[in-house]
Write the structure tokens for this entry.
Amino acid sequence: MFAPDRTSSSPSETAVHLPPEVPGAAAQTPPAGRRPMARVGSDGGMTTAEYAVGTVAACGFGAVLYKVVTSDQVANLLSAVIRRALATTF
């Protein structure tokens, strides 16, 4: 995070200290009337476009899974498993 230098008297003279991992990290003065960006570098979360791509992929996977589960072969296999489980004696 940026930390303004509290020793300056006017907002235009406020120094901004960049994190050490930023190349050329030295105290800089932001332009008058502008605030420095809150974060530089790391992108911790997903953006709206990434959520959209993830949602479309999940829908596609769901459609494929539905087709597989409702196919005749899988339905017959599940029916056979259930019949066998119900016919088992203890």
About this structure: The CA atoms of residues 69 and 75 lie 7 Å apart. Residues 48-69 form the longest helix (22 residues).
